[in-house]
Amino acid sequence: MTQTANAAPGTGAAITARALTKSFHGTTVLHPTDLHVPAGEILVLLGPSGCGKTTLLRLIAGLERPDGPDMLRFDGEDVSGVPVERRNVGMVFQSYALFPNMTVGENVAYGLKVRGLPSAERRAEAGRLLALVGLEEHAGKRITAISGGQRQRCALARALAIKPRVLLLDEPLAALDAVLRERLRAEIGLLLREFGITAVYVTHDQAEAMAIGDRIAVMQAGRIAQIDRPEVIYHRPANDFVADFVGTMNRLAGPVRDGRLVLDGGDTRADLPTGGPDREAILCFRPEAVRLRDGPGEGAILARITATTFFGATQRLLAEVAGQVLRLDLPSGLTFRPGQLAAFSLEGPALLEFPRNG
Amino acid sequence: MGRRWTTWAGIGLTALLTLFLILPVLLSIMAGLCVNYARGLSSGLTLAWVGQVLDLYLDTILRSLAVAATTLVLTLLIGVPGAYALVRRGGPLARIVEEVVTLPVAIPGLALALGLIITYGGYGTFRQSTLFIAVGHVLFTLPFMLRAVMAVLETIDWRVLDEGAASLGAPAWRRFVDVILPNVREGILAGSLTVVTLSVGEFNLTWMMHTPTTKTLPVGLADAYASLRLEIASAYTLVFLVMIVPLLVGLQMVAGPQRERIGP
């Protein structure tokens, strides 16, 4: 995409949801949810399918009606009862939703045509947006004649053309292959920031969420489990669902006595200081939070390596401690053989503990 | 390696069957063009019989075209938005409506006509008008338009197209006209050809419903077969074929191999 300086300045509206709720046929798909998205922020809704993220997006769009009045405001104005066509929101769909009966240029200009803009003006505006997404040479082509990545850029240009108050993107990259997805997500992130538009972006891909979001709302079973900046979500997940969904998390379960979790598996062993009262605990840490050390002792994990996978700069070890499996990421310069014992220590405040689920 | 004998037998059998079916049509056409059918082709060829048919029955030919055109307009007006409404609405109610609308196809045309006459026979002007015939044809052809359009609607992702257009600010009627209609064009075309073909050829219903001033071509054909010499009746058949065959060919072409289509 070409970067130009004449993109519209921050035109977004702030979104405020208060006890926003949605049920279908008596089943609650979105439990009362409070949410504030400041103008110009990119909020990513992240979660597995069926967690309510798409419902929340469609409620903000006006494609679904909330259960009650005054549950949703744009810049303080109640929009709960305003249908999608009068809400002035830009939508980008996973399946593009481009109109096959129109050219690329006509698709981008359609929203302006509906708004009654004269033909010359809307052609100029569509041209400007197509240039912004690098499709200026394709304006006259049919939708069938351009690639998947180009279609999604066209859809983005079409949504931005109407100068929406809020831009909503529903898994926009899910239909594309991995390489294209990674490139396009960087481009979309840049473009959204350049426009300064308020955006809500739905995905189930945590890497995409990290790359694009100013904040991420991780959703679970119709509720927001945690909403925060990507670094906080990653390093300080609010519960083990979030911890598991965002990145890989190791777990060591066992008894804590005198402020230490001690696991004794004969030749393998863990001895980790935790503090707190005696209890049964699950301690969690990220695979990259370990360092190789000389030998066992306090604060160490002595594990048996069972397999190694080469990833380039790093290698992923599968290791076993007292019958529990760990995944550990270490620099690939180190050599490990399956079957050997190795001692690791945890870096910094890497150890997390979540309350046990009933 | 030559073809196997079973292939040749298959070709032979198909040819025989085709001949069996097409021979009456060819003989009928010949009868309409012969000076004297009893003496066969040796009596010479003439367009005189066709000329007589046009003299005697031009009004039925034109009326058939008018009925077909009226039927087409009405089925388009009712059928296309109706198909969209049924697909949009979905659920058991939509299926019940679809079944009810399809019922006239299963009911004998005579019974359907009787029902219409009993109900509207009292409205003299309507009863005696060509429109009355067209209304009967609409009842009978509407399901074909509905199904053709619904079939195409089910292959396009109309919901996401509709939502896309809505997010761009288009009100419901505009989304239907700008985005739905152009993308179900093929279904509308196929439905239209079916409706016109069925209407032009319809006999049962029309025979029961017609008055001396509202005869259509097939009703006229029955008259001609019953009361005129064979050559004129055959020439009349020829005129009918000239009208209907291009429609059937068009139908084949539209319903033929699907052209490239994309999801939205």
General description of the model:
The complex is a heterodimer of chains A (358) and B (264). With 358 residues, chain A is of the alpha+beta class. Chain A is elongated. Chain A folds into two domains: 15-244, Rossmann fold, CATH 3.40.50.300; 250-355, Beta Barrel (OB fold (Dihydrolipoamide Acetyltransferase, E2P)), CATH 2.40.50.140. Helices cover 24% and strands 35% of the residues of chain A. By secondary structure, chain B is mostly helical. In chain B, helix 2 packs across helix 9 (185-201), helix 6 (130-155) packs antiparallel against helix 9 and helix 7 (158-167) packs across helix 8. Classes of the chains: A alpha+beta (358), B mainly alpha (264). The A-B interface holds A 61, 63, 83-86, 88-91, 93, 95-101, 110-111, 114-115, 143-144, 158-159, 162, 168 and B 156-157, 160-161, 163-172, 174, 178-179, 182-183, 185, 260-264.
The CATH architecture of the largest domain in chain A is 3-Layer(aba) Sandwich
Largest sheet of chain B: none
Distance between the termini of chain B: 48 Å
Total E-strand runs of chain B: 0
Question: What does the radius of gyration of chain A come to?
Answer: 25 Å
Q: Name the largest protein-protein interface in this structure.
A: A-B, 28 and 25 residues
- What fraction of residues of chain B sit in β-strands? under 5%
- Number of spatially distinct domains of chain A: 2
Helix content of chain A: 10-25%
Summarize the structure.
The complex is a heterodimer of chains A (358) and B (264). Chain A is of the alpha+beta class and 358 residues long. Helices cover 24% and strands 35% of the residues of chain A.
Overview features:
heterodimer, A: 358 residues, alpha+beta, Rossmann fold, OB fold (Dihydrolipoamide Acetyltransferase, E2P), 6-stranded mixed sheet, elongated, B: 264 residues, mainly alpha, globular, disordered C terminus
